[in-house]
Structures are given as C-alpha cells and as structure tokens.
Write a structure and sequence with these properties.
InterPro entries: Integrin_alpha_N (IPR028994). This protein is mainly beta. The protein is built from four helices and 16 strands.
C-alpha cells in the first residue's frame, strides 16, 4: 500500500486555505410583537343641562340625557360638559369649562360636584346652560315686585284664585288671597301664552306668622285655575323664573324658585296629572 505524506494529509483535512470553515450564522431574532393599540376613549354623552352659577362655579340643577332619554341630576349632568366645553352664562359672559371641583353651599351638609369655568367672579350669577346654543330655548319671566302685582291684580282674578284655594283647602274659611306673581309665557309650545299665578293667604292678624295657604296656579282664560303646587301653614312661596324645553319634545318645563324667609331652592318641573313633577333641584340654605 502506498503511503500518503503527512503534510498532504493535514492539508486535505483543513482545506485548501489551511483554516477551518467559519461556523454557520446564528438565526436572526424574531421581531418583537407590535404593541396593542390604546383603546379609544368613549365619546362624551350628549344631552342638555341647566346649571346654577354661583361663587362655587356651576352646580347642576337638571339635565336631559339623550342616552336612555331621561332626566337626571348631579354628576351625570357634569358629564355633558367635559373640559373645553363652551357654556352660556345668564350674565352674558362667554366661558369654557376648565376643571371640576366639589363645593358645598352654606347650610348644605353634602358637598356636590361643580364645574370650574374661566369666567370672572362677577359673571357667576343666575344660571347657565350646556350646550351654549340651548340659551335660545330658555325663556325668562320679567320680575315685578309682589306688592305691585297684588295692587294691580284684577278683582276677577283674585276671586278665581280664592275659589281654587277653597277647593284645595276647604278648612281655610274666609279667603283673601294676596297675588305675589303673574307671569305670562308659552309653556305648551302652541304659540299662545299661558298665565301662571303665585298667591298666598296671609294671617290677617300677624304678617310675620305662617301663611295659611301658599300656591302656584295655571290660570286658563276661563274656569277654575289649576293648582300646580301648594302648602298650608308655611312661610314658603313660589316664583316662576322662566321655562325651558330641556328634553326637546315641544312643551317647556317650569324653572321654579321656592323660597322662604331664610332659604330657597331652584327646581325644574314638568306638568303632571296631579300638579308638578320635580325633574331636578338645587338648594342653598
């Protein structure tokens, strides 16, 4: 057998270049998975809100939520006005929502949510609406001093109110009503004005004593006035501030002030078979 030179044998083992072949390349790492997209925030709810403007900001009185088609109050109303929303103020100032806060009116134990807006302190009075375009649907009553209203009230109206009071409270006996307010505005959306009258029966012997009766009436052109709300033996009185079609169905809801000697509350009311139904309320004192 023929022998192979050792040098040739080594050369054949390591290749022609005299070096070992490089190792195969490592496999490329798998690409990292793409991050999941951030979930989109749900759009803010839609609807319309009536708010009270005060030194604490804007406090919700009542609102109508398109989702669920219902009236609501409190924080549900503030959800209709996220930061940046334009609001309309009764003072006429333009304003935007900048944040939320929690405040309590003196005499109210439970703090309530409020909207903070970029308006001067002197503009925070009366009421406000969201969206700002809702201002076109808010109708105000022109205030007149109660003494002037009573002085100018026709005898025929006074007699009709006395008749309605006697029917509501037969035990009153002789009734001499004092007419505190007469307001005329379209409530049912038919284009014709409706008359609202607020009246009380004072104690003839003591002006500081409780009223024997206090009532709010819808007065038709003829017939007995319709009693909307009343209380007996009270210092509470009623004054219609205006009307607003908050749910957009045509008839307007009543914007009502219920007040006594040391406190008051504002409410939004709708007509009901037995008088008024409170849709939302804000109280102070």
């Amino acid at each position: 057998m023929r022998s192979v030179p050792l040098a040739l044998l080594v050369s054949s083992l390591v290749g022609c270049g005299g070096e070992a072949p490089p190792p195969p390349p490592a496999p490329a790492p798998a690409p990292a998975p793409a991050p999941a997209p951030e979930p989109e925030a749900p759009p803010p709810p839609t609807g319309r809100a009536l708010l009270v403007a005060s030194e604490f900001g804007l406090s919700p009185l009542a609102c109508y939520l398109d989702a669920g088609q219902r009236f609501a109050g409190g924080a549900d109303c503030l959800d209709l006005a996220p930061v940046g929303t334009d609001v309309w103020l009764m003072s006429g100032a333009a304003a935007k929502v900048v944040s939320r806060a929690v405040a309590a009116c003196p005499g109210v134990t439970s703090p309530e949510p409020t909207l903070v807006i970029d308006a001067p302190a002197e503009a925070l009075r009366g009421d406000a609406v969201v969206p700002a375009s809702l201002k076109d649907g808010l109708v105000y009553v022109t205030p007149t001093p109660p003494a002037e209203v009573d002085r100018d009230a026709p005898k025929e109206l006074r007699a009709r109110i006395a008749e309605a009071m006697a029917a509501a409270a037969p035990g009153l006996g002789a009734i001499k009503p004092r007419i505190d307010q007469r307001a005329s505005l379209d409530l049912d959306g038919d284009g014709s004005p409706d008359e609202i009258v607020a009246a009380v029966v004072p104690d003839p012997k003591d002006e500081e004593a409780n009223f024997r009766f206090s009532g709010l009436f819808l007065v038709p052109p003829a017939g007995v006035p319709v009693l909307l709300r009343s209380r007996a033996d009270t210092r509470e009185r009623y004054a219609l501030l205006g009307a607003l079609d908050l749910d957009g169905d045509g008839p307007r809801e009543l914007y009502l002030n219920t007040y006594g000697d040391d406190s008051f509350s504002l409410s939004l009311e709708s007509r009901a078979p037995d008088g008024l139904k409170t849709l939302g309320r804000w109280a102070c004192g």
